[in-house]
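re the bet — no i am not wrong, look at it urself. input seq straight from the record:
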Amino acid sequence: MNRFTFAASAVLLAVTLTGCTTAPEALTDAEFYDMATSLEFFSTYAETSLDDVAAGVCSEMSGNDTETAWLLTIKALTDAGVPARDAGSFTAFTTAARCPDMMDRLSDA
């Protein structure tokens, strides 16, 4: 298991446990960029482009109710051409790095 897979697993586990424990610690910028560019779709994105997509993810997460935020965010990304697996991972990474106050929305979907 490489470090990105391990880190992704840790984030997703934290998402799963959000309802059972305190919110996980936010990802650093470096962790976010490393994890995001480990996804095939985003592998060639510059940091500023990742920041732009991440801002859209946080906006989408905050613009929807807690019951549907995660699903509608992934739908918006897949509608824009992002493969579903990368969309789900990117949403988890972004939420942990850029809008950690919304981590509870990941477990509500």
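see?? Residues 3-108 form one domain. told u. also Residues 1-11, 13-22 have pLDDT under 50 and may be disordered. so pay up
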